[in-house]
Amino acid sequence: MKALVWHGKEDIRCDSVSDPEIEHPRDAIVKVTSCAICGSDLHLFHNFIPAMLPGDIVGHEMMGEVVEVGSGVNGHLKKGDRIVVPFTIICGECDQCKRGNFSVCETTNRNKKMADKVFGHTTAGLFGYTHLTGGYPGGQAEYLRVPYADATHIKVPESLTDEQVLFLGDIFPTGWQAAVQCDIEPTDTVAIWGCGPVGQMAIRSAVLLGAKQVIAIDFLPERLSMAAAAGAITINPGEESVKDRLNELTDNMGPDKCIDAVGMESHSQILPEHMYDRTKQSLMMETDRPHVLREMMLMCRPGGVLAVAGVYGGVLDKIPFGALMNKGLTLRTGQTHVNRWTDELIELIDEGALDPSFVITHTEPLSNGPQMYPTFESRKDNCIKVMLKPEMEAA
Ligand SMILES: NC(=O)c1ccc[n+]([C@@H]2O[C@H](COP(=O)([O-])OP(=O)(O)OC[C@H]3O[C@@H](n4cnc5c(N)ncnc54)[C@H](O)[C@@H]3O)[C@@H](O)[C@H]2O)c1
Ligand SMILES: [Zn+2]
Ligand SMILES: [Zn+2]
């Protein structure tokens, strides 16, 4: 089959590889009809997250048709079912899964020892996302093996298109979870850093959850326009001071709730700060650039909440922890507990309250994936979200 394969920094190729097979009774094989490139894939593209190996198949946003099931799937799935595959592989049985903390499933990471060493405890196995999270082949491919398939799936109604439901596996619940973590009150101003696909979902979620005012921050005009279309007030840090503008919009109190939808590769307009992080990152003395985290801690209204959806990989420097502590801020974070949110999000799509397909700017054949990574990375051609279709013919 054809699949997008990681060969090293900024080197993703569409290779011919062996078709996946059932390896365990709880496996299923899915014929992928649609998949997408996520902002998290860019961290792999830039080689910022360790433990990728040349030959690894990437991709963790995918859906398709079940073509084979193992004997242990026990009727939870059958051939012909149409499913979205959550990026977190879950057993459905461990203590964390029972609590709905799916992204920290205790069973599915087959490289637990490595994760224990790096994070103190293992987290769930993830598709296409380094050997630290199990080294499972990803879904930017014609076929995917889904381990623990009896639990690791989202059945979707036939009446909804791939474009409408694909993002139930990652960015939609990610934006939603961040907004839910903010415990939004009708009097709240919610500020969201990053208007990529995750930020866009967080903006719409915060609006749906009843925030008084939603403020969206990003450097890219086309992403700010998309945010404004959802009702957000926008700030471009390249053109104005984030601090001054946030104070102006909140009677100098600061936003009640802040969402980080940027993560480890944030840019700072303050040149010495940006140079500091870039240099430390290149010398491997710091793994992530935490500009947005610093800014949120300093800008948030005392007593407020910071929800961090952006991915961080390791060790961060110059974090104003004193501001966080003395202002009594609450910090919430996590990879998304995807399946925890499925039912309510399908309902929102079904009733037309939020159609996640608005975020797609590019639909391409899977074989064009190697060109679409740099297009998404450089935001060329106003690219916001790339959907890839294995069955589409290359032009
Ligand atoms: N928690 C989860 O489970 C989960 C799931 C999916 C994605 N993510 C993470 O969410 C983050 C966003 O993903 P995405 O797909 O939207 O990626 P993306 O790269 O398209 O978006 C990031 C956006 O942040 C903007 N940005 C950079 N520096 C900024 C700053 N200082 N202030 C404001 N905006 C700034 C960029 O211009 C860009 O638009 C990534 O870190 C990704 O890994 C987390
Ligand atoms: Zn993702
Ligand atoms: Zn589990």
How would you summarize the topology of this molecule?
Blueprint: E1 2-8, E2 11-16, E3 28-37, H1 39-45, E4 56-57, E5 61-69, E6 82-85, E7 88-89, H2 95-98, H3 112-119, E8 125-126, E9 143-146, E10 154-155, H4 162-165, H5 171-181, E11 189-193, H6 197-208, E12 213-217, H7 221-229, E13 233-235, H8 242-249, E14 257-260, H9 271-282, H10 291-299, E15 305-308, H11 321-326, E16 330-333, H12 342-350, E17 362-365, H13 369-377, E18 386-389
Parallel strand pairs: 11-12, 11-14, 12-13, 14-15, 15-16, 17-18
Antiparallel strand pairs: 1-2, 1-4, 3-5, 3-9, 3-18, 5-6, 6-10, 7-8
Helix pairs in contact: 5-6
Derived structural class: alpha/beta
Radius of gyration: 20 Å
> Cofactors and ligands present?
nicotinamide-adenine-dinucleotide, zinc ion
Task: Tell me the fraction of residues in β-strands, as a range.
Answer: 15-25%
Termini Cα gap: 19 Å
Explain how this protein is built.
It is a single chain. This protein has 395 residues and is α/β, with parallel strands linked by helices. The protein has 13 helices and 18 strands. It has helices spanning 39-45, 95-98, 112-119, 162-165, 171-181, 197-208, 221-229, 242-249, 271-282, 291-299, 321-326, 342-350, 369-377; strands spanning 2-8, 11-16, 28-37, 56-57, 61-69, 82-85, 88-89, 125-126, 143-146, 154-155, 189-193, 213-217, 233-235, 257-260, 305-308, 330-333, 362-365, 386-389. Strands 3, 5, 6, 9, 10, 17 and 18 form a 7-stranded mixed beta sheet that branches. The chain has a 6-stranded parallel beta sheet with strand order 13-12-11-14-15-16, sandwiched between helices. A hairpin with a 2-residue loop joins strand 1 and strand 2 (11-16). It is globular. 50% of the residues are buried. The site of one zinc ion has 6 residues, from loops.
